């Protein structure tokens, strides 16, 4: 296997690591950004901005800010 093919395989198999947030290379930055998006999606719920109540009723999230 050529050196270039070996490097491609290493990049293709690379997964997110917590220290990716501190690195400045394109791959680490992209993985950190994608991890943040996935984490936000799992935390926040659906894209329509609703939270499911324990009883199954959807509660819309306010699009307003908060008063300081």
UniProtKB/TrEMBL annotation:
It comes from the Bacteria. It comes from Bacillus mesophilum. It holds the Pfam family DUF4025. Residues 16-26 have a biased composition (Basic and acidic residues). This is DUF4025 domain-containing protein. Residues 1-68 are annotated as: Disordered.
């Amino acid at each position: 296997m050529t050196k270039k093919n070996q490097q491609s395989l290493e990049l293709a198999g690379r997964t997110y690591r917590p220290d990716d947030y501190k690195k400045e290379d394109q791959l680490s930055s992209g993985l950190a950004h994608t991890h943040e998006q996935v984490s936000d999606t799992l935390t926040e719920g659906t894209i329509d901005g609703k939270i499911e109540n324990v009883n199954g009723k959807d509660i819309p999230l306010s699009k307003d800010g908060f008063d300081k």
